[in-house]
Amino acid sequence: MHPAAVRSPVATLDRLPPARKSSPVLTDRWAVLTAAVTGLVSCIALVTTSGDLLPIPGATLPTSWTLLANLDPRPRFAIAAVVEITAVSLLVLSWWALLRRRDQLRGGLTLGIAALWSAPLAIGLPLLSHDAYSYLAQGRLAALGFDPYRDGPARLGDSMWVQGVDPVWRGSRSPYGPLVTFIERGVALPGNAVVALVLLHLIALASLGAIAFVVTRLTARTHVTTVLLLTVANPLVLLQLLAAAHWEALLVALIALSVYAWRRGQFLLAIMAASAASAVKLPAFFAVVVLALLYVLAGETVWGKLRSLVAASFAAIAPWILLVMLVPDAMGFRRALLTPLSGRTLYAPTTLLAHGVAGLFDVLQLPLRFDAVLSICRVSGMLAALAICAWLLATVRRRTPAETIGLGLFAVAVLGPVLYPWYLTWGLIPLALTSRWLRTAIMGSTVAVFTALPGCTVLGYALVEIRPEQSAGIMLVITVVAAYGITMAKRPDSSAT
Fold first, then answer.
1. Alpha-carbon span 207 to 215, nearest angstrom
2. How far apart are CA 496 and CA 17, in angstroms?
3. Which phi-psi region, left, alpha or beta, contains residue 66 (left: φ > 0; alpha: ψ -120 to 50)?
């Protein structure tokens, strides 16, 4: 691919006057250093304050060491919200600044910056979500001999393993595949919840390491910096996969490894890796279908295609056979596949469509049950995703495997009944590996990183409840951050005429 094709996704950021011929290299180095340090400070600020932004009634964290712990609840939440939004904004702006200067970065330096930003997020408590505490409770159930596919965390009683779980989900069974259950049981075996949290972060960190390995091995030297920035240094990945310790880190790492194995000609191993990813979350099975189909189509004769089909089927089944032997009731996750549907995400396209239809009926003063409309929209979204995946499979030879997998999983995530920001990484990471669709990866990550941010909800209530002068102070901080971001995102030579 021509280098110009890699720069095009951020072309809207590059419409600046031409650089002066005498532009000093040290200025760009200073800009890179400023972005790296700003991102690090932002991550440290998130770790030391954002633990105060999940005050779920009935949920108690196993430990707390945030800087705002001694303040009264109302100002504490408002301050933590401002710090979180400011820190996330600065982290995203730092990322954009690095994307602007990717031509001055080498792969090793980009990995160093990603490691610098990851360090504080890997040692702190889970941020932005309480899902990690559900993982611990499910693991403890399995370690004690219970079946997390039949019993919810509430089965553990008033144990320390349950206290951090959102009460809404304490009665819910695990919807995750047997590979997740096997790992959850392992991290819970030491019997210490804090140690288990550390292990979850280490698993997420190792997953990002695997993605970085694949990027450095598969991507052309001229593109490796851009792809690293879109994967392991991506704020969406750092916050939702590492800091929040969601299982998507393991899922996309296995998909990346399957793409790596495929590119090396180890086709059956690639199918096995994709199958292991489907044992994390079932939508990843689309990757198995893509790789198996390509493997079968490569056969030159009918007999060759039949042999390829048998081999691909065995490769797809092998990880599951192993997990069935290691995990009791390994297929029990099927009974809980609808568990995530218990919640609603207002920013899911299907939910937005349902609200739009309901609003139209309300204007027309026509009777309508919102739940019925929502169900219809959700079914329509799933059918649309199915149609897209079918078309991608029918035209699978027109694209690389990574591109087909990425587009299919992205469609499944966006058009699904519920949409959480970390779901978008199903498709964003494979698409980034292709060095194409980079504009989609950049803009999708930028928007998604602010979606479901606890600070936005808390700040909204805070601005209503606190005094006007405090609201003015908050808005002043946001204005300063925006001005700083614009200054940092500009190239040093932007003043040239």
1. 13
2. 6
3. beta
Helix (H, G, I), strand (E, B) or coil at 264: coil
Q: List the structure tokens of 366.
A: 């026509």
* 310 burial via Cβ count (<10 Å: 0-12, 13-18, 19+): exposed
In sequence order, what are the residues at sequence separation of 6 or more whose Cβ sits closer than 8 angstroms to the Cβ of residue 249?
Answer: 203, 204, 207, 208, 237, 241, 242
How many Å separate Cα 37 from the centre of its chain? 23
DSSP E strands in 173-326: the ranges are: none
CB atoms within 10 A of CB 262: 24
Angle, alpha carbons 94-96-98 (nearest 5°): 70
Annotate 33-57 with b (16+ C-beta within 10 A) or e (fewer).
eebbebbbebbbbbbbbbbbbbeee
Q: Is residue 183 a contact partner of residue 132, using CB atoms and an 8 Å limit?
A: no
Put simply, whether the predicted model's pTM sits higher than 0.85 gets the answer: no
pLDDT more than 70, % of the chain = 78
Measured CA to CA, the distance from residue 196 to residue 209 in angstroms comes to: 20
List the single range of 5-9, 230-234, 281-285 with lowest mean pLDDT: 5-9
CA distance 438 to 431: 8
Contact 169, 175 (CB under 8 A): no
Neighbours of 301 (CB within 10 A): 8
Amino acid at 450: F
pLDDT in tens, 169-202: 788 888 899 999 999 999 998 888 888 888 999 9
How much is the pLDDT for 464? Answer: 46
Listed by start position, the domains of the chain span 3-14+25-260+455-489
The rounded distance, in Å, linking the Cα atoms of 103 and 226 is 9
